[in-house]
Amino acid sequence: MRGITAVAGGTGMLGGTVCQQLRAGGARVRALVRPTSDSRRVERLKRLGVETHPGDLKQPASLDALCAGAQAVITTASCMLSRQPGDSIQSVDLEGQLALVEAARRAGVEHFVFVSFPPLQGNFPLQDAKRAVEQEVLRGGFPRTTLLRPTFFSDVWLSAAMGFDAVKARARVLGTGEGRVNWITLEDVARFAAGALDTPRAWGAVLELGAEEAVGQLQVVRLFEERSGRAWEREYVPESALREQYEATTDPLQRSFAALMLNLALGCELDPRPAMDAIPVRPRPVADFVERVLAGQPLAQEEARG
To answer: What residue range is the signal peptide (predicted)?
Structure first.
């Protein structure tokens, strides 16, 4: 029987979905929970049967207890979507993650799974942090490691919060809208993360995650139009404006977000077949995501908020 899997980021959208996937498979799960975490998300973890452990990536002492007795650690934590006072890319995505790696080594954790993202164009703090943590994970000390590099999350970047509003039938299109992306849902990333623990072909692997077909934003809009029978309004943000925003800001968080928007506009194509060969998960095409949105089915981010 597999031992405890400790999850950092369990109250976040992706981490909460990882916990759900693990528990659905009967795993014992321990999640890091901050005192300031959303109480509804904490209660949802408890209802799933997740052991909640008080702590914070910014408090290294709490990470030793999180990792004690754990067979595996999966970390999805980031300050990008759930920033709280004191959180920054430096304190969470870099120093906090590095502290977690060291705590897991000291505890004798057998398998460390780190969720990152594929190499993107440009230099920006979030990417620098991800690469530094990847290198530290691979440096040694763990019998097994898995680096997961999902592309853009459809639940996030094709949501109303980012200007893709299915209710109002309008889209905020970055660049020309033709840049192709192998979109992936949070749920499918969680399935890869959970599957990596029991799949030897994923051990020691660096796996890029995405759906098989790369689709541009405008093609996603057309899918919404075809399936809903409604014409969508389009608002374009020129690539030049995105570049100007990226180059003008020095704030680490804003620069990283601007870089992500620019890369989305340019496109992020990858080959997802090695990941699917390593872990028996087939990411659903973006058309399925569109159908779920139009049908009003709850997405991972909505479930995590409940």
So the answer is: none
